[in-house]
Amino acid sequence: MMGMIGLLSGMLAAIASGDSGLAIMGAGIGCGLASIGVGIGIGLIGGKACEATARQPEAGPRIFSNMIIAAALVEGVVLLALVICLLALVWMH
What we know:
rod-shaped; 91% helix; mainly alpha; single chain; 93 residues
């Protein structure tokens, strides 16, 4: 998480200094890292939900609904990163 914050603050510093190349590169890397993290997170959520359902099949519907809620919350992180990066790029031009 600290790496992502450092990358975004570096991108904002590049925008403030007027270096558009670094800002564009920072936006791309930031969105990529956020997407990779979310992919790993949702994969872990799905895997653990499958394991839990295999152990207790009668709790399957509750596990599924909790999995969907958790995946939606994790997905919000990548959407926030995408919006921040796009706003930074729009602000640059």
